[in-house]
């Protein structure tokens, strides 16, 4: 028990934690309850299955914080980024992946590793002995969730994650839709045409908003409150915040020109992003929803070009829990009341595939070093990794702690640079240059 690192959960964080620790020479056991015990959102028993979007978001490591996080994970030999790069799909400046081959690659690499074994079982409690990382993610089983609540002495916070629908490409009417990335972004023609765009005029948009607001929605169980993470809001919740909200969010028309009517500026545009390498599946970007299935098909077929759309998967909503990490975890991601246990991934209060995997990377390295009798230098706060771990282990206000994507607002200011929008490009480049130097030095000394 004590000479192995036990990782509970085989999602993004657990998979990356296992890889990093095993690459450092530590024997690892991944405890994954799927497929023996399924969840609402998962479709397979693969490790690192992507259940919501297939996007890792921006890959720009000079002007975007998540792109910087990509860079840091690649520099650390991250498995998740290697698999994502191997199964990359055209997505303009974003990193989108073919989700099934991606998960199959991660699963195969982990199962083939000489220091890793995988057991399909549910862990229902917090062990007193041994070295453990809990990376059970947004769908922690109720039994384990209750054990965590008993140990921490606090109610787990909860919010709701929504999933966007996926459409069969051959059911999209391309006489009304067209291929184009926003602002023609991308280095190749394939990247510049990575999205399918469906235009709406003002009347179509207004009718669509009316239908969204009137559609039958999923009801919450007694005692549940509809608290959402702002980065994953259902479209109907956005519409409730104002009729123009969607037109300035996922349906914004800027940077797009309809070749069927180049002289007409669309009032709104719905974008679909390729979801697999074959190009047979596209997901509707930003269209997470809690509408019931029947309502989804009728409402989404109001979108020009999707009148005859066939759906490979409809949207859905599920409960997501996370711990109050600023009060419960130390700077090494250990549970203060039981330092033999670390937490990683979304359950710590980071949001997004990349952020979850990044916290898994750190937890795996920190646990492995501790087991080897070594003490790693403190993760530099000026790196993207350091900014995130600092936020969840003490930088955030515990009273208002909510899930957080990586962003430059978590970074310490760079002296001598002006604020505001005009200075943003130079400021972001300074952040990323400083972060790369700090992260490279940490890796070299670890």
Automatic annotation (TrEMBL):
Top EC group: transferase
Entry's localization field: Cytoplasm
Keywords: Cytoplasm, FAD, Flavoprotein, Methyltransferase, NAD, NADP, Transferase, tRNA processing
Catalysed reaction, written as an equation: uridine(54) in tRNA + (6R)-5,10-methylene-5,6,7,8-tetrahydrofolate + NADH + H(+) = 5-methyluridine(54) in tRNA + (6S)-5,6,7,8-tetrahydrofolate + NAD(+); uridine(54) in tRNA + (6R)-5,10-methylene-5,6,7,8-tetrahydrofolate + NADPH + H(+) = 5-methyluridine(54) in tRNA + (6S)-5,6,7,8-tetrahydrofolate + NADP(+)
Biological processes annotated in GO: tRNA methylation; tRNA wobble uridine modification
Residues holding FAD: 9-14
Molecular function (Gene Ontology), one example: flavin adenine dinucleotide binding
Annotated ranges, domain MnmG N-terminal: 5-374
The protein's Enzyme Commission number: 2.1.1.74
Residue intervals passing through the bilayer: none
Domain of life: Bacteria
Cofactor: FAD
A GO cellular component annotation in the UniProt record: cytosol
Family: Belongs to the MnmG family. TrmFO subfamily.
Functional note: Catalyzes the folate-dependent formation of 5-methyl-uridine at position 54 (M-5-U54) in all tRNAs.
Protein name: Methylenetetrahydrofolate--tRNA-(uracil-5-)-methyltransferase TrmFO
Species of the source: Ruegeria marina
């Amino acid at each position: 028990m004590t000479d192995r690192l036990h990782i509970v959960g085989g999602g993004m964080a657990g998979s990356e934690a296992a890889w990093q620790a095993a690459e450092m020479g530590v024997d690892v056991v991944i405890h994954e309850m799927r497929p023996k015990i399924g969840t609402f959102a998962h479709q397979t028993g693969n490790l690192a299955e992507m259940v919501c979007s297939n996007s890792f978001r921006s890959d720009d490591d000079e002007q975007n914080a998540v792109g910087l996080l990509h860079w840091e994970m690649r520099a650390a030999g991250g498995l998740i980024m290697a698999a994502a790069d191997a199964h990359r799909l055209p997505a303009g400046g974003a990193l989108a992946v073919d989700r099934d081959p991606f998960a199959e690659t991660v699963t195969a690499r982990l199962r083939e590793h000489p220091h890793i074994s995988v057991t399909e079982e549910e862990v229902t409690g917090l062990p007193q002995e041994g070295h453990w990382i809990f990376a059970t993610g947004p769908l922690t089983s109720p039994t384990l969730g209750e054990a965590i609540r008993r140990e921490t002495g606090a109610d787990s916070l909860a919010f709701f994650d929504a999933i966007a629908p996926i459409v069969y490409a051959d059911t999209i009417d391309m006489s009304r839709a067209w291929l184009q990335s926003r602002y023609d972004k991308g280095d190749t023609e394939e990247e510049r045409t990575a999205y399918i765009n469906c235009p709406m005029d003002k009347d179509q948009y207004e009718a669509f908003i009316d239908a969204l607001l009137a559609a039958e929605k999923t009801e919450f169980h007694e005692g549940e409150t509809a608290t959402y993470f702002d980065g994953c809001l259902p479209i109907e919740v956005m519409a409730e915040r104002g009729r123009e909200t969607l037109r300035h969010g996922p349906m914004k028309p800027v940077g797009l020109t309809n070749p069927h009517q180049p002289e007409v500026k669309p009032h709104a545009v719905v974008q679909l992003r390729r979801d697999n390498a074959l190009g047979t599946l596209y997901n509707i970007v930003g269209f997470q929803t809690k509408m019931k299935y029947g309502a989804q098909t009728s409402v989404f077929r109001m979108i020009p070009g999707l009148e005859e759309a066939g759906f490979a998967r409809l949207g859905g909503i599920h409960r997501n829990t996370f711990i109050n990490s600023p009060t419960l975890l130390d700077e090494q991601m250990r549970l203060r009341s039981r330092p033999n246990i670390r937490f990683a991934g979304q359950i710590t209060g980071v949001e997004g595939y990349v952020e979850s995997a990044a916290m898994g990377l750190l937890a795996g390295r920190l646990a492995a070093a501790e087991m080897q009798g070594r003490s790693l230098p403190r993760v530099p706060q000026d790196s993207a990794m350091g900014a995130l771990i600092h936020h969840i282990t003490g930088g955030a206000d515990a009273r208002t702690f909510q899930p957080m994507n990586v962003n430059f607002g978590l970074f310490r200011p760079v002296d001598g640079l002006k604020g505001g929008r005009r200075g943003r490009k130079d400021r972001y480049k300074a952040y990323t240059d400083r972060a790369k130097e700090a992260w490279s030095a940490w890796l070299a000394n670890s």
